[in-house]
Each structure stands twice: as structure tokens, then as C-alpha cells.
Specification:
The N and C termini lie far apart (52 Å). This protein has three helices and nine strands, in the order βαββαββββββα. Helices cover 15% and strands 32% of the residues. Strand 4 and strand 5 form a beta hairpin. The structure holds cytidine-5'-triphosphate and zinc ion.
């Protein structure tokens, strides 16, 4: 009999699309929200939350599989804001054709709105938002125009 060497598969493999793996435990739903995916768009989604990972059984991760959609770089940058260790696997014909760790750029342009209603980026001027990453974990962003500091809660409201 063939020895069972494969890891237990909690959610089945996909043929085509994106697997976001190693998401910080408990943040899968926020990842979907950041991507603007609410379910009604019709994507075939598989979500696993707080599943054991690695040798140490107390380690946990979340996984999101989005079939027939390949994520773009702006989406990937957004995920880095809330899940700095996530990996983005692009799947074609059941094979992982690319695997990349999300990367938080040191500057974020035109991705998040500033929470300060009086910030020039919220006036009618055509000025794009621009933030500098002050701290990665926990995430803190500073607006380059009004210097306000935004934490994760602020970011989630304005992304
Ligand atoms: N996956 C999938 N469908 C496929 C291929 C892979 O859903 N057709 C999923 C796997 O279940 C895994 C992720 O995509 O969650 C990455 O696959 P793979 O690189 O094969 O797994 P690992 O080697 O365990 O990845 P890592 O080293 O990044 O943990
Ligand atoms: Zn501002």
C-alpha cells in the first residue's frame, strides 16, 4: 500500500486561480474585504480559517483560494498591510506557476484614503494619497501631507 506522505488536504486543490496561503490566523475575511470580494461577484472561493500548520500543532494560518482569478500587484500590496507573511500562489492547470511573498512597500500611493477629513488629499484638489510606512508590525502609516498616523483599524475603514 502506498504510504501516506502527503499532508492532509483540508480544502481541495484548484485548477486555475490564486491561493493566498500563510495568512495571519483569523484575518482571511479581512483579506477578502481588502480585495473588495464580498461573495456576490460570483468567484468560487474556498476559505480556511485557523487551520494548524507546520510541525508545531499550535501554529495556525488562514488560506483563501480564488478560482479563475489572478491577483494583481496592487492587491498583493494591500494584503501585505494586514498579513505580512502571506504568500501568493498563482495556479495554472493545477500547478503552482508562481509563488511570491507579499511585500509591503515603504511608500503607498493612491491605495488608501487619509482619515483626516481636512487633509489636502480629501479636498477637491487632484492630489493622490501618499503614505509612509512608519511601522510594519503592527502596521502604522503616516500621511505625507497632513502627518496623521493611521493604524490597522483606520486602514481597514479607508482601504
Ligand atoms: N494549491 C492548490 N491548488 C493547486 C496547487 C496548490 O490549492 N492546484 C495550494 C496548496 O494547497 C497550498 C498552496 O496552494 O496551500 C501552495 O502550494 P504548494 O506550493 O504546492 O504547497 P507548499 O509547498 O506547502 O507551499 P509553501 O512552501 O508555500 O507552504
Ligand atoms: Zn492626510
Amino acid at each position: 500500500m502506498k504510504k501516506m506522505v502527503e499532508k492532509e488536504l483540508r480544502v481541495r486543490k484548484i485548477k486555475q486561480g490564486t491561493v493566498i496561503d500563510h495568512i495571519s490566523p483569523g484575518t482571511a475575511l479581512r483579506v477578502l474585504s481588502i480585495l473588495g470580494i464580498m461573495g456576490k461577484e460570483g468567484h468560487i472561493l474556498s476559505i480556511a480559517i485557523n487551520v494548524p500548520t507546520g510541525k508545531n500543532q499550535s501554529n495556525r494560518k488562514d488560506i483563501v483560494k480564488i478560482e479563475n482569478k489572478e491577483l494583481e500587484i496592487t492587491d498583493i500590496n494591500k494584503i501585505a498591510l494586514i498579513s505580512p507573511h502571506a504568500t501568493i500562489n498563482i495556479i495554472r492547470d493545477y500547478k503552482v506557476v508562481s509563488k511570491e511573498k507579499v511585500k509591503l512597500p515603504s511608500e503607498l500611493k493612491d491605495i488608501i484614503k487619509c482619515i483626516n477629513p481636512n487633509c489636502i488629499t480629501n479636498s477637491r484638489e487632484p492630489i493622490k494619497s501618499h503614505f509612509t510606512v512608519e511601522n510594519k508590525e503592527p502596521i502604522l502609516l503616516r500621511c505625507n501631507y497632513c502627518n496623521i498616523i493611521m493604524d490597522l483599524k483606520d486602514i481597514l475603514k479607508n482601504i
